[in-house]
Structure formats: structure tokens, C-alpha cells
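#structure-requests
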Amino acid sequence: MATKIRLQRFGKKGKPFYHVVVSDSRAPRDGKFIERIGSYNPNTNPATIDINFEKALAWINSGAQPTDTCRAILSYKGVLYKKHLEGGVKKGALTAEQAEAKFNEWLQGKDSRIEGKKVGLSSSKEEARKAALAAESKKKQERAAALALKNAPVVEEIAEEEVVAETEAEQAPEAAAETTEETPAENAE
């Protein structure tokens, strides 16, 4: 019986969630399987991968063939690298201690890269939030300035009102003087 390590789809439309399973190559994608060895959630950033390392390594060593996506997932988690190092130990190129030291070194480097990506994503998210807040406050200030400009009286109208008031003030004493002069003349007639 040819066994495959492949993904079994779950989740709703547009939000996939996968189980990593070992199944007969003739079984349908979401059908009967031999053993479930993990899960894969591509909706998160970085993707959430939960694999039972020992079971996956045992199935790979016993001849189960991973699909392309499962091969990438197993490589990401280090299962294939561990198999490669074990092959080197069997051939005598490495000792078991050297292989374990190389694998632990690789694992630490991988963990640091993953943490770096998480930190980079959170910092870029924070910067985007700050930029959006600054843009929003700038837009709010522009709206306030436009509203103040709209509600403020126009300078030309103020100047015209002052000119009209001055001319009325100048004409008022002259008009008062003319009315006083005409009144006695009218009385004389």
C-alpha cells in the first residue's frame, strides 16, 4: 500500500484550515486516512503549523511520500533535515552527537527568524497605526481651519463696513449742520 502525507481541508469558504494526515494514495482528499499527524492554518501570519515531529519522522522513514505542500511544511518544521542528518549518521559521515548539535543549531536559527518576522510584522503594524493617526489628526486640523475660515467674516466686508461707517459719521455732522441752517432760513420766508 502506497502511503501519502497530505492535507485534508476543513474550514469554511475563504478560510481554509488543514489537517496533515497520512493516508492511502487511493483515498479521496477529505476521505479515509490512517493517522492525523498535525494541522496547518494559513490564515495567520506567519502560518500556524502544529506537527507531531516524531510521528512525522517515523512515517517519512517508513516510506510515506509527502505532497508538495506537505513537503514544504515538513521542511519548514525540520523533519526532512532531521531525516537527512540521520542518513548521514547511518553512512558514518557524522556521529549522532554532531547530528543532534547541527539540528539544534538549525532549530535555534529557525526560531530566531520566525520571532524576527513576528516582531517586524508587529512593528510595521504599529507604524501603520501611528501614520494613520497622524493623517487623521492632520485632516481634522484642515477641516477645523476650513470651518473657521468659512465662519469668519471676510476682511473686505469688514473694511467696507468701516468705510461706510466712517462716511456716515462724516456725513452725519454735515447733515446735522445743513438741517440747522435750513430751518432758520425756512422760518424767515
